[in-house]
Specification:
Helix content: 55-70%
Largest sheet: none
Strand content: under 5%
Number of helices: 6
Number of strands: 0
Distance between the termini: 37 Å
Shape: globular
Radius of gyration: 13 Å
Structural class: mainly alpha
Number of domains: 1
Length: 112
Amino acid sequence: MARTISVPRSLPSRVGHLVCSTVNAPYGTHYDANDLAALINEPGVATRNDPAVFAFFSEVDVKLQVAFLKEYGIGLDHAKSVVHALSALAGYNLPLTQTWPDLLDAEGQPTI
């Protein structure tokens, strides 16, 4: 039985709408912000080849990615491991891997 990580459901914010419009449009997916957050937060998500997760880390502006992760309670360590795994599978560095240190303060919290 697959283990699912739950993310608290909330009404989509402006950040959620912006992210979902960017993620869903190219691939014809229909995730809402809560579904996308839960999907990103699942263990092993990088190896599932989900186009929405890849689009999140490749097409969404980096600052918007961090705002979304923070708003939906997705751990930064988990997100970092996902983006590095996706980068390895893609064969190139996704934007968040290149700017990660610049987006965190001295305590490792998002500056967004």
